[in-house]
Amino acid sequence: MKTPRSKIAAAAVAAAPFGGDSGQGKGNEGKGNNNEGKGNKNQNENEKFEEGRIHINERSYSSRAGDCITVVSGLGAKTLNIRNDSRKTVEVFRGAVCDNGAPVAVVGPHSQSDGVNVRRTEGIRVKDGVVGSFRVIKHHKDW
């Protein structure tokens, strides 16, 4: 009479007669990640369209939409010079946050605006410089 252990061993040998693993692999062993060509659609689309950059007083910023970015420019600056090298629109505000009222300038895609006066903001002092903020607006066709 066979013991339970020998029955299990015999079943394993019958399931893998050529030394294989009986089809019960460990995770994705030898199978790749099964994601080849799937889910990488955005990566290929992003390669078609260059992101572009926003340049303000000799500094460069990303043109990703959504965030409010504070710009502090010193060394005697009185105004902001904005160059938009992206396909998006940039709104420029006075002060360190983008909720201090209406924008003081709107710079369209692939254009620039020089001499934007953001004036002084209450509570913020920069010696020989200016403080402003901007945000990038996403267009409907970019959604």
Structure commentary:
The chain has a four-stranded antiparallel β-sheet with strand order 2-1-4-7, with no helix packed on it. It has two helices and eight strands. The N and C termini lie far apart (71 Å). The longest helix is centred in the N-terminal third of the chain and has 12 residues, at 4-15. The protein has helices at 4-15, 41-48; strands at residues 53-56, 59-62, 68-73, 80-84, 89-94, 105-107, 111-116, 130-137. With 143 residues, it is of the alpha+beta class. The protein has two domains: 4-44, no CATH class; 52-142. The protein is 14% helix and 29% strand. The radius of gyration is 30 Å and the shape is elongated. A hairpin with a 2-residue loop joins strand 1 (53-56) and strand 2.
Cα distance, first to last residue? 71 Å
- Output mean pLDDT: 76
Following the backbone from N to C, one meets helices and strands in this order, namely HHEEEEEEEE
Main β-sheet, spatial strand arrangement? 2-1-4-7
**How many domains, in number, for the residues?**
2
What profile does the largest beta sheet have?
4 strands, antiparallel
Count of helical regions? 2
